[in-house]
Design a protein that fits this description.
Blueprint: H1 2-17, E1 22-24, H2 37-41, E2 46-47, E3 51-55, E4 63-66, H3 68-73, E5 81-83, E6 87-91, E7 96-101, E8 113-119, H4 158-174
Parallel strand pairs: 1-3, 2-8
Antiparallel strand pairs: 3-6, 4-5, 4-7, 7-8
Helix pairs in contact: 1-4
């Protein structure tokens, strides 16, 4: 019985390897002035189930999810959601383009805005499309394009790890019959 439980735990852990990605917006710079969020997002594939983690100093910025029109005009008055706690994680629950701005006056116009196109496929899918990103032009130094995040959205080895976990689970179960 213990082998069965261990196998189930291993299988669950391996399945989680192919699960959602938590992206730290702006990498080490976080959600702050002076970051080119269009550059940050380029080359990343966002899918339903992923999350965006906005890290910033409490009281200095906000994270407002807004409509496309409010994104273009930098208007935070009709936000869909807002937070100013300093650590905001937004789960990407639906496909389509999601728009985020800082609601502090002058910050959005200064470049604190991010739009990401979210693919409806799961993050373990091998055929996710590249995001369509829009952002206002910035004259600041862009963040690194290293893809600083907690897990990789594109893991070609994840399906193999899940198969290996399933194989271990079946071997453990076979020993009990």
């Amino acid at each position: 019985m213990a082998g069965l439980i261990v196998g189930a735990i291993l299988l669950t852990g391996w399945a989680m390897l192919g699960s959602a990605t938590v992206y730290t917006v702006g990498d080490a710079s976080g959600w702050s002035s002076g970051v080119d969020y269009s550059d940050w997002a380029s080359g990343k594939s966002f899918v339903v189930g992923d999350s965006l983690a906005f890290i910033y100093s409490t009281g200095t910025h906000t994270v407002n999810e807004v409509s496309a029109d409010d994104y273009q005009s930098c208007s935070a008055s009709n936000y869909l959601s807002t937070d100013s706690t300093g650590s905001t994680t937004i789960p990407l629950k639906t496909g389509g383009t999601h728009y985020f701005i800082c609601g502090v006056p002058g910050h959005c116009i200064g470049g604190m805005k991010l739009a990401v196109s979210v693919d409806a496929a799961s993050s373990s899918s091998s055929t996710s499309s590249s995001p369509t990103i829009t952002s206002s032009p910035s004259t600041t130094t862009p963040s690194t394009a290293s893809g600083y995040h907690h897990a990789a959205a594109s893991r070609p080895w994840a399906p193999r790890a899940m198969v290996a976990g399933l194989a271990c689970f079946l071997i453990l179960m076979a020993g009990h019959f």
